[in-house]
Each structure stands twice: as structure tokens, then as C-alpha cells.
TrEMBL record:
InterPro entries: GlpE_sulfurtransferase, Rhodanese-like_dom, Rhodanese-like_dom_sf. It comes from the Bacteria. This is Rhodanese-like domain-containing protein. It comes from Psychrobacillus glaciei. Residues 15-98 form the Rhodanese domain.
Amino acid sequence: MNLITTEELLQKLDAGEQFSIIDVRENEEVANGMIPGAVHIALGQIESKFDQIDKSTSQYIVCRSGGRSAMACEILEENGFNVTNVVGGMLDWEGELQF
């Protein structure tokens, strides 16, 4: 499984790199803020939303601390997606938030 820190992800965002971020937390968690531009797909919904995820784009998967995003990465990798787990999750995120 590919891994990235929140600091490295923020650097990629600041550099204008093209990729997608999927936040797999629950609704009440994302209400506290998400990484700007991230798409919310709760972990329990990930398999039913494959058609909404672009296989040709790198996907960075984030949750609260990194556990659920690791599970989502395993599911997505098994189905042919290019994914990277954001280690530390939103607990470590020091960038802007979108509400």
C-alpha cells in the first residue's frame, strides 16, 4: 500500500499537482471540515461508488487517523484503482479546511 503524510499531501496540493482526495469518514465527521476539493464517500459506501471514482487519476484516501482509509485503500486497490493512504489522517492535517 502506498503511503503519504499529511505534510507531503499539502505540499502536492500547494504545487498544483493533479489528483483526487477521497474522505472516507462519516457524515458527522466531515461536518467538522474536509480538505478543500476532497470528495466525501464514507467507507461503507465505497464499493457502491466505484463508478464515481476515476481509475485514471491518483486517489489519496483520508479518514480521521488512517485506519479506515487503509481499509478503503485495500478495497480500491483490489479493484484496480491507484490509491495512496494518507497516514495520520485529519488528526494530523494542518492545512485549510472546507466546510
